[in-house]
């Protein structure tokens, strides 16, 4: 089987590089802020498969479900690396915070199914962004990638996003709010799309794919670190990215393998049977200036413009792959 | 020899509007060693204030207090104050033995204090009550605990603030008899504040009578009843009755004047 | 005879509510998968207790709570004693304390994260801060309620200020302090869990949000049930301790009632 032989080849290839100088050495501890979603599967794969240990690193994940403490915690040196959505990262950079991209994490796929979906109540006459004008749409947070893709979808399907009211509803409560009629539509991300359709499938339906309908393969989330830390400890982050990218390879080799779903179920606690219904993102290793430029164009269009540095300058060497 | 001397003692309290309120004006008196003196005065005349200043619990505004020739500015080791409200002066979280021992355990340690406490409880007729809590006892018994505690400190002088006013009449007689007995046995000097004329005559050698506020010395009365006295029988003596009449007249007349 | 009757009618009410829970969920009255039947919740609870996961998490939560409670309670008593015995300190620091008191605790978590990180230090501090104020207030009240005669009694026997504070003021104020501590105890559990929900990967609070994120309603409610039981047990345990520590206070209360 291909995955097995590839894994074997990879680990064999890595062995002579990593093992000899690190034997008997204590591990350097790095704290990484994550969100318990599909996006961080490669990180957990790299932890479980020992790729970080092989680089002399011990990764201590800190799960922040709200996402509110991830980037501030990075600024406060609570974390060495933070996983975050691209919009929040760029907004922080606009405010003068020295975030640098250490690695890519996820992008949307070129074709449906997306990791994001717009859901409405079954039998609702809302079918497009045009129908949503004067209505209420839920996003987990304002001014993040979910909201941005949702607004782009509203515009793409004929609506004026300024005339759609955004309501902040946490993902776990979206399905109930939708079924209960408190909101007219909601922008879900996986695994909550699958969760909502599994539990409320008789009452909810999907009307849109916000990424593939607006920006196929568009950027989604990355790992960032502070520039100062990267400058001072470049070699450490090289090791971090090397191990993480081996995790990316591990995941990409198993996109249709139950082993991946078991890994995700382990760290996210989402039951495997639900994960079988989940759409997976693309797992890139790098970040490209092109995807960031495209993102900034979209952000500017939707009111999140401002003075941003040249995107190429934001990509640390470990993400320039 | 004078054991306690009050020399022109004055007490004033600051007043928000106007001059300070004077509650005691130039009171002088001396209590001889081994003497039992009562302070008698109308209610609210500041008898307790006088006693607290004598005990070093309250600073004087003017004048001096001396005990055994020393000027008093803090509670002296020779004199112990016995409070009117035994419910407030006894510690409800300590049993009777440890309440009595409280007077001395900071000097002797808890073990030794307990031994002394047991002995003192015997002396006030509370043998076997050491394990009880104060609130399990009657008012009279609680005041006995307070007296035992005062005695445990082995003071030369007791300053007693209406110690029997909160108990019923029979218990009061009982406690008066106890005090007479202890005073005779231990040759204590006692200054007792009371508004009970009978009590003052029954117990005291001399009675200092105070005026209404601001309190001044009205007169010093020599009781002159023979010792030993009896808390009941002494009250039937003609001399007792005559003195009682005189003092009551004096105290009641003060109301009109 | 009255007490057992009241007790059992309370049990009946609880049992009735639990039955209503089961039935309403089975019949899907709430029309949501986020209202799972009690039986599923108890099954999840039993499973995660037996696997050792919940006991370990609850132990961590309780440990942080206890540490915060001890630190905050001790500080509350000490500051209360200081304020009460040295009025100058109360005038000096009182306004600061009054300014900090009304800040909602979840609001202090983000700044505390900056200084103390995401782990025990931050969470224990948050709990300590919560526990501090009820104890401080009650300590000051309790000290104010100590009778002047009681303190004068200590002075007449030549007992020094420190010993008076420790042997008279503190025991006399203890019923008030314990009442404050009981308020703090209830808050401490809540705040410990809230702090765990906001940051880090520790305790029942983190379990709760993880399960919420994973869309596992039975586990969410299992955590809630576990917290309810813990809170109940803590309060009962505290009451029992309190009855022992200040039995005299309850005895005096009974006397005052008649």
TrEMBL record, chain A:
Subcellular location(s) of the protein: Periplasm
The entry's keywords: Signal
Domain SsuA/THI5-like: 39-251
Keyword presence, Signal: yes
InterPro entries: SsuA/THI5
One Pfam family matching this protein: NMT1
Signal peptide (from-to): 1-24
Similarity comment text for this entry: Belongs to the bacterial solute-binding protein SsuA/TauA family.
PANTHER family from the UniProt entry: ALIPHATIC SULFONATES-BINDING PROTEIN-RELATED, TAURINE-BINDING PERIPLASMIC PROTEIN
Protein name per UniProt: ABC transporter substrate-binding protein
Species this protein is from: Plastoroseomonas hellenica
Lineage: Bacteria, Pseudomonadati, Pseudomonadota, Alphaproteobacteria, Acetobacterales
From TrEMBL, chain B:
Keywords of the record: ATP-binding, Nucleotide-binding, Transport
Cleaved signal peptide residues: none
Single GO MF descriptor: ATP binding
Classification via SMART domains: AAA (SM00382)
Sequence ranges assigned to domain ABC transporter in this UniProt record: 4-237
UniProt cross-references to InterPro entries, sorted A to Z: AAA+_ATPase, ABC_transporter-like_ATP-bd, ABC_transporter-like_CS, ABC_transporter_ATP-bind, P-loop_NTPase
Domain of life (superkingdom): Bacteria
Pfam families: ABC_tran
Family: Belongs to the ABC transporter superfamily.
Stated name of the protein: ABC transporter ATP-binding protein
Annotated source species: Plastoroseomonas hellenica
């Amino acid at each position: 089987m291909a995955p097995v032989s590839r894994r074997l080849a990879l680990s064999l290839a890595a062995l002579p590089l990593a093992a000899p100088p690190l034997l008997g050495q204590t591990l350097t501890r790095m704290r990484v802020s994550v969100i318990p979603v599909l996006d961080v599967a490669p990180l957990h794969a790299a932890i479980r498969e020992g790729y970080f240990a092989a680089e002399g690193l011990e990764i201590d994940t800190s799960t922040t479900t709200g996402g509110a403490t991830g980037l501030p915690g990075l600024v406060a040196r609570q974390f060495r690396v933070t996983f975050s959505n691209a919009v929040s990262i760029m907004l922080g950079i606009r405010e003068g915070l020295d975030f640098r991209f250490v690695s890519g994490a996820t992008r949307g796929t070129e074709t449906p199914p997306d990791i994001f979906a717009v859901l409405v109540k079954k039998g609702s006459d809302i079918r497009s962004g045009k129908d949503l004008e004067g209505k209420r749409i839920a996003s987990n947070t304002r001014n993040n990638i979910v909201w941005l893709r949702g607004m782009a979808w509203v515009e793409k399907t004929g609506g004026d996003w300024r005339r759609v009211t955004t309501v902040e509803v946490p993902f776990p409560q979206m399905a109930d709010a939708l079924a209960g009629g408190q909101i007219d539509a909601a922008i879900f991300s996986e695994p909550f799309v699958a969760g909502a359709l599994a539990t409320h499938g008789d009452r909810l339906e999907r009307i849109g794919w916000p990424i593939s309908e607006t920006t196929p393969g568009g950027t989604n989330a990355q790992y960032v670190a502070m520039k100062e830390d990267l400058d001072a400890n470049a070699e450490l982050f090289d090791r971090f990215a090397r191990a993480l990218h081996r995790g990316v390879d591990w995941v990409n080799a198993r996109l249709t393998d139950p082993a991946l779903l078991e890994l995700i179920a382990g760290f996210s606690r989402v039951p495997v049977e639900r994960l079988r219904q989940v759409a997976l993102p693309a797992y890139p290793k790098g970040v490209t200036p092109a995807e960031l430029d495209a993102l900034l164009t979209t952000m500017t269009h939707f009111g999140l413009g401002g003075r941003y540095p040249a995107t190429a300058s934001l990509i640390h060497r470990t993400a320039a792959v | 020899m004078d054991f306690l001397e009050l020399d022109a003692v004055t007490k004033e309290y600051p007043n928000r509007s106007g001059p300070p309120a004077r509650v005691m004006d130039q009171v002088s008196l001396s209590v001889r060693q081994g003497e039992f003196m009562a302070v008698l005065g109308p209610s609210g005349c500041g008898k307790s204030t006088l006693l607290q200043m004598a005990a070093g619990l309250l600073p004087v505004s003017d004048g001096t207090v001396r005990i055994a020739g020393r000027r008093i500015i803090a509670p002296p080791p020779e004199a112990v104050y016995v409070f009117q409200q035994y419910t407030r002066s006894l510690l409800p979280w300590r049993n009777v033995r440890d309440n009595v021992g409280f007077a001395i355990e900071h000097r002797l340690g808890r073990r030794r204090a307990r031994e002394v406490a047991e002995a003192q409880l015997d002396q006030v007729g509370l043998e076997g009550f050491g394990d009880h809590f104060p609130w399990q006892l009657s008012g009279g018994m609680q005041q006995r605990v307070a007296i035992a505690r005062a005695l445990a400190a082995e003071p030369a002088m007791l300053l007693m603030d209406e110690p029997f006013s909160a108990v019923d009449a029979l218990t009061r007689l009982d406690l008066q008899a106890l005090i007479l007995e202890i005073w005779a046995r231990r040759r204590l000097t006692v200054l007792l504040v009371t508004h009970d004329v009978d009590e003052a005559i029954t117990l005291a050698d001399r009675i200092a009578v105070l005026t209404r506020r601001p309190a001044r010395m009205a007169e010093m009365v020599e009781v002159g009843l023979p010792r030993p006295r009896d808390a009941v029988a002494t009250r039937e003596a003609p001399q007792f009755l005559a003195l009682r009449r005189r003092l009551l007249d004096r105290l009641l007349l003060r109301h009109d004047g | 005879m009255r007490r057992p009757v009241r007790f059992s009618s309370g049990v009946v009410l609880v049992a009735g509510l639990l039955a209503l829970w089961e039935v309403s969920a089975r019949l899907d009255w709430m029309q949501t998968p986020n209202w799972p039947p009690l039986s599923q919740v108890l099954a999840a609870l039993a499973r995660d207790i037996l696997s050792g996961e919940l006991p370990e998490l609850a132990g961590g939560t309780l440990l942080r709570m206890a540490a915060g409670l001890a630190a905050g309670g001790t500080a509350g008593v000490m500051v209360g004693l200081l304020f009460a015995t040295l009025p100058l300190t109360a005038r000096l620091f009182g306004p600061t304390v009054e300014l900090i008191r009304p800040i909602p605790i979840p609001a202090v978590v983000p700044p505390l994260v900056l200084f103390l990180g995401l782990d025990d230090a931050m969470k224990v501090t948050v709990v300590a801060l919560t526990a501090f104020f009820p104890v401080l207030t009650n300590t000051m009240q309790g000290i104010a309620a100590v009778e002047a005669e009681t303190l004068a009694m200590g002075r007449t026997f030549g007992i020094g200020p420190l010993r008076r504070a420790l042997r008279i003021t503190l025991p006399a104020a203890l019923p008030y302090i314990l009442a404050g501590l009981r308020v703090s105890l209830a808050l401490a559990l809540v705040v410990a869990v809230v702090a765990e929900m906001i940051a880090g990967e520790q305790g029942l609070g983190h379990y709760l949000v993880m399960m919420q994120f994973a869309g596992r309603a039975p586990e969410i409610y299992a955590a809630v049930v576990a917290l309810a039981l813990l809170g109940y047990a803590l309060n009962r345990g505290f009451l029992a301790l309190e009855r022992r520590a200040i039995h005299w206070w309850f005895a005096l209360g009974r006397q005052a009632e008649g």
